[in-house]
Design goal:
8 helices; binds NADPH dihydro-nicotinamide-adenine-dinucleotide phosphate; 19 strands; seven-stranded mixed beta sheet; five-stranded parallel beta sheet
Amino acid sequence: MDCPRQKPFLLAWLCKFACCLFLLNPINTVHSGETPMTTPHLRLAIIGSGPAGYTAAIYAARANLKPTIFTGLQPGGQLTITTDVENYPGFATAVQGPWLMEQFKAQSENVGAILLAEHIDKVDFSKRPFTLTTDMGKTYTADSVIISTGAQARWLGLESETKFQGYGVSGCATCDGFFYKNQEIAVIGGGNTAVEEALYLTNFASKVTLIHRRDSLRAEKVMQERLLNHPKIEVLWDHVLDEITGDENPKSVTGLKAKNVKTGAIKELKVSGVFIAIGHDPATKLFKGQINLDAEGYIICPPGTTNTNIEGVFAAGDVQDKLYRQAVTAAGQGCMAALDAERYLANLDAASK
Ligand code: NDP
């Protein structure tokens, strides 16, 4: 705000006061509509800052939608707890997960997205404009919303599991399997993910031991047959992971201890990687009762779209995808959601004329 020079004192003071008000006012984040000072109104709100959220922000900003992205409690999502990323296209050599997310963030800011380090913990999609409320009680209204809150891999909660996460303990075979060429590894779990990951890992590993807490698998029969007939795979039934062992320098996994749930006996295995595949939890608690979720809590979108059952609310990334769960597929869906939101807002503008 430009204050002209050589003004009488009172006018200059008033001008300064107006400047201060402008800078302090939360309405600075407002991009459309004339709404009350206390409730900033957003044209497009994006909830969640993983590859899906940032990509949606990049596309929406370049479409002049002035998106506001609520980055949440773990800005950057799951990639920020990953080390080497070798499968994100565009990089000839491995990049670090946290660095990659910094690039997403900087790119979205450079093209004009507004980033707010706030956590949305309540939404109301029952009336328009939609309402979003932060955990600090601050309220925003929005014409359209993209949900990209992701999903969290479930972990067992062992101290040694946390210690070696990113150093031999992984939650994603597609991401990290390549690093275990000709090595022995273990997969924990008995569902479709565990079986699929064990099979995938045989492309690299010399041996894969699937450790399951029961004596039968939850995975589909056809997958079970493939697993049980695979020459590189052995199943350790009725065992739970007790401890992951390893070296400090360099930090790496060298083995594990598994406990027989029936006898209590401990079995030690020499492995250099442990893949935890006991399921994922989509971050959709705050949308329960607001939009349609499936039995496992994922947002339901018709195949090939980012549409939810509420017009103007879109979902992208792992929060609606339990099959692919990759940074690049999440980013692709973020792009789709931004294009869908752009179309929706254009129709909204046309209808209001
Ligand atoms: P699931 O919930 O189906 O399976 C989780 C597995 O982890 C179960 O075997 C469970 O054991 C085990 N488990 C859970 N908690 C623990 C624990 N604390 N300690 C030890 N083991 C534990 O999750 P998935 O990720 O496998 O699948 C999720 C959904 O996605 C399913 O609907 C699945 O069908 C679907 N999916 C589909 C795919 C496809 O179609 N290609 C691929 C991957 C997933 P227990 O059996 O004893 O409960």
